[in-house]
Each structure stands twice: as structure tokens, then as C-alpha cells.
Specification:
Blueprint (H helix, E strand, L loop, with lengths): L6 H10 L2 H10 L4 E2 H5 L6 H13 L3 E6 L2 E6 L2 H21 L2
Antiparallel strand pairs: 1-3, 2-3
Helix pairs in contact: 1-4, 1-5
Length: 100
């Protein structure tokens, strides 16, 4: 079994494995939003939703800012660069396999 030495890549892919977290990142593409604004469309408890945000924050995919009592999050794309590089190495191979 291959072991990847880069923990950042493992954490980023683990964070992206959940559809709720992917939706949060897609929503944040349009700009910074408060936790309440992000949580509203997901229909889950705030503590449950906060766990998803913590995973994204631990992976470095979002940054948090506090203004008074309002906590806002913004997308932080830097960790995705390493994932994109890893994926690009295999894109040609997979594209050839999937189109034949």
C-alpha cells in the first residue's frame, strides 16, 4: 500500500470527501459569509454544522474572521493548489481511460 507523506494532501481530500463541506466551499466562492448564513440552507443543528466548518478550517480551506459577535468565513484556496497538482498528474491518464 502506498503511503503519502504529505499530511496536508490527506487532510484536504478528507475535508472534500463530504458533500456538505463541498457545498460550503462552493457557496464561499461568491465571498465571505457569516456562520449563520452558511448554516441556514443545510437543515442541521448549528453544533453539527460547526463540526463541518472545523474540518474545513483544520484543512486550511477556510479562514475565520470575527467582528463583534459575528463570525464570518472566507475561502482560502492555497491548500487546494497541492491537491490540484496531485490531480493534474493523473488527469491525462484518467481522461484517456474514461473516454475509451
Amino acid at each position: 500500500m502506498v503511503k503519502y507523506k504529505n499530511e496536508v494532501l490527506n487532510v484536504v481530500f478528507a475535508a472534500l470527501a463530504d458533500p456538505t463541506r463541498r457545498t460550503v466551499l462552493q457557496t464561499l466562492e461568491q465571498g465571505s459569509l457569516s456562520v449563520g448564513q452558511l448554516a441556514a440552507p443545510h437543515g442541521m443543528s448549528l453544533p453539527g454544522f460547526m463540526k463541518h466548518l472545523q474540518v474545513l478550517e483544520d484543512a486550511g480551506l477556510v479562514s475565520r474572521a470575527k467582528d463583534g459577535r459575528v463570525v464570518s468565513l472566507a475561502i482560502a484556496p492555497e491548500p487546494m493548489q497541492e491537491a490540484a497538482v496531485w490531480l493534474s498528474r493523473y488527469a491525462k491518464f484518467w481522461f484517456a481511460r474514461l473516454t475509451t
